[in-house]
Amino acid sequence: MPPTLSYAYAVARDTPALSRVVPDLRGVGGAPVRLVRAEGCEDMVAAVSPVPSADFAEDALRNHLEDLDWLESVARAHHAVVEALAAGATVLPLRLATVYLDDEGVRAGLRTERQTFSDRLSQLASHVEWGVKIYVEPPEQQDAPAAEPGPDLSPGRAYLRRRGQQRHSREDVYQAAGRAAERVEAAAGALAAGRARHRVQRGQLAEAPGENVANDAYLVPLEHSDLFRAEVLRAAEGLTGVRVEVTGPWAPYSFAAPPEPAPPREEGP
Amino acid sequence: MTEPVPSRLGAIPSRAQPYGQGSSANLADILERVLDKGIVIAGDIQINLLDIELLTIKLRLVVASVDKAKEMGIDWWEHDPSLSSRAGGSRSLAEENRRLRAEIEALRETVALPPAEEEPAEPVDPPATPARRPKPRTSASGTSASGTATPRTSASRTSTARTSTPRTSPHRTSSRREPR
Predict the structure, then answer these.
(1) Distance, CA of B98 to CA of A202 (rounded, Å)
(2) Which chain B residues have a beta carbon less than 8 Å from that of A114?
(3) What is the distance between the alpha carbons of residues B66 and B168, in angstroms, rounded to a whole number?
(4) CA distance B3 to B100
(5) Are A247 and B39 an interchain contact pair (Cβ–Cβ within 8 Å)?
(6) Among A70, A103, A220, B52, fewest CB within 10 Å belongs to which?
(7) Is the Cβ pair B37, A196 closer than 8 Å?
(8) Dist. CA A83–CA A77, nearest whole Å
(9) Average pLDDT rounded to a whole number, residues B151-180
(10) Under a CB-based contact definition with an 8 Å cutoff, are residues A13 and A122 in contact?
(11) Is B8's CB within 8 Å of A75's CB?
């Protein structure tokens, strides 16, 4: 058997439900997931599976991370395990590719971070994460036919008028997006226990049409979960050119790390 | 699409897909969580997290760049205070200034006024050409307001990511176990 390393997916509360989920769970490369427990950390476990050393040793891993197909397969496997665990217990998702030489290394990690893990697990108990993205869809295409220049207009004036019309319709859309953002924040803030900002999504991976102008995650108490989704979607109703997309519920990825100790800041958040 | 969240305490079928995303979740949504978020602890295999941060930037920006978006003029909302907490009031002034300059430039060329500076006069082209030339935009980019507007560009995103990395585990890297 080729040498393996221990890939850790998440730290979780040790619950009976978790123990029922794990036996059937497969992780990266289809390897079986197991729970690792450490002495002195009786209330928590780490979910771990073996991965080939050939793929996850430092150099190999660094190279693999540049390969989007490889990265996608690992990311999806990681995510699938985290989601399955989250159904059975409060989880702290670990960052992708948290890899130890063996399970003893995982135990040492649990012991070292025991207090942090314990605190975060308590904070996140019975909460889920919802993603809220706001898109604008500038009505650029529909301007072209409307830009019939009047007979009395020089080409230059006609051009400027056309540009002005385009700009105004674009401004309208972005103003609508601003209103949507305010309403969504108000609706979400009323129900959420926390909020995290993600970078707006662009580039090839941003599959959704339109331009992503806000990408937030909210930590929501489980009992408000359905209401949260409904209220956020309702908040954006009736605004043309703006689309609000709600994803989730997610395991609390965006809230797993302890909050930063608020340092004095020169700038607003 | 989204199924109700089951009770965490209830019996859960082992292969249930209780969360709404499942295997169909958008890759960008997954990557931003598993790469950018999640708790960071030092494993035995040390991967420089900067590499991962840079990777996400590559995925996001290099593939279809922000510069292209800017070229298409779809960046100005970033300076709108109602949309961006980073926008300062001076920026909208700079933006207004930039727009006015662009319009003056376009007007100047269409009515065949002499150019403002060393810019050679152009024959009156199809009207779309003058204002789409990069001149107004590049001249505006030299202003201090535009300079501070760069956090969203790829270059300074890199630096944002770099500076944000230690925050996730400032003290933790020291606790890493030495590989045996």
Answers:
(1) 25
(2) none
(3) 26
(4) 51
(5) no
(6) A70
(7) yes
(8) 10
(9) 37
(10) no
(11) no
pTM: 0.65
Q: What is the pLDDT of residues B23-32, one digit of tens each?
A: 567 888 888 8
pLDDT in tens, A22-39: 999 999 999 999 999 999
| Pairing of the two strands A91-100 and A34-36 | unpaired
Residues of B in contact with A93 (CB under 8 A): 33-34, 37-39
CA A3 to chain CA mean position, Å = 33
Chain B residues within an 8 Å CB radius of A72: 27, 31
What is the predicted ipTM?
0.85
Whether residues A178 and B60 touch (CB distance < 8 A) is answered with no
CA–CA separation, B49 vs A71, rounded Å?
15
- d(CA A81, CA A3) in angstroms, rounded, equals 22
**Class at the top of the CATH hierarchy for domain A127-255:** alpha beta
Question: Cβ–Cβ of B34/A157 closer than 8 Å?
Answer: no
A148-154 own/partner pairs: CB under 8 Å, 24+ apart: A154/B110
B68-90 residues labelled b (16+ CB within 10 A) or e (exposed): ebbeeebbbbbbbeebbebbbee
Amino acid at A49: S
